[in-house]
Amino acid sequence: MVSSIVKKSNTETPDGVTIIGSNVAATQTALSLAQMGIKVNVISDKTSLGRDNIAGNESDSSSATDRLTWSLLLQAANHPLITLHTSTEVEAIEGEKGNFKIKAIKYPRFVREDLCSNCGRCSRDCSASITSLLNGQKIVHSAIHTPVLNSKSIPSAYVIDKNGVSPCQIACPLGINEP
Ligand code: SF4
Q1: Per the CB 3.0–4.6 Å rule, which of 3, 55, 110, 150 could disulfide with 160?
Q2: Preceding peptide of 155 cis, ω within 30°
Q3: Where does ligand 1 bind, in terms of residues with CB under 6 Å?
């Protein structure tokens, strides 16, 4: 799916800012701007904020640093002035300081991001297996999976690595696995 994300801003009284990237620094910047009352678009080619850059391991969430990071990501994702564009690649940027136009490609995750409850039922019923690299190790997982393998993430909506029609589409009780 191709979409255009167009933001204009005025250098004196900015009505909107676009941040490209979703690591912790980018997310903190987005949150700081939003807390100043500025609308922010965050564009990222990742499926989720921040933790894409952290090794996928649930035990990470016990560290103080990770708890702070998690809190930051939650605040940013839930801030009414921040709009997330995950799985989105910037194709072109045109314009000049204070007035840029950004063209981006949005890749579907095939699951409704606004409705997925992260219950995991679909992945348990998924019969399609995929091999991926995680921290240098090959792991086998279902074709529908959490955005960051073996870890929590924000947004938490599941993602389908699609290759034909998947059984999890039928298994989802909410019927929100999109074709
Ligand atoms: S896609 Fe459906 S079954 Fe899978 S985690 Fe989301 S709500 Fe649960």
Answers
A1: 110
A2: yes
A3: 111, 116-122, 158, 172, 174, 176-177
| pLDDT tens readout for residues 135-150 | 888 889 998 999 888 7
CB atoms within 10 A of CB 109: 22
Among 118, 119, 124, the mutation site with the greatest number of ligand 1 atoms within 8 A of its Cβ is 119
pLDDT score of 51 more than 70: no
Tracing tokens 């640093």 back to the chain, one arrives at 65
- 14 neighbors 40 (Cβ within 8 angstroms): no
Per-residue b/e over 65-79, b at no fewer than 16 CB within 10 Å?
A: ebeebbebbebbbeb
Q: Which pLDDT score is estimated for 26?
A: 93
Q: Are 100 and 94 in contact (CB under 8 A)?
A: yes
Please determine, for residue 85, whether its predicted confidence score (pLDDT) is greater than 90. Answer: yes
Domains in the chain: ranges and CATH: 2-106 (3.50.50.60), 121-171 (no CATH)
Per-residue tokens: 88: 């989105």
Residue 132: HSE in the Cβ half-sphere, 13 Å Cα cutoff = 16
At 161 the pLDDT is 85
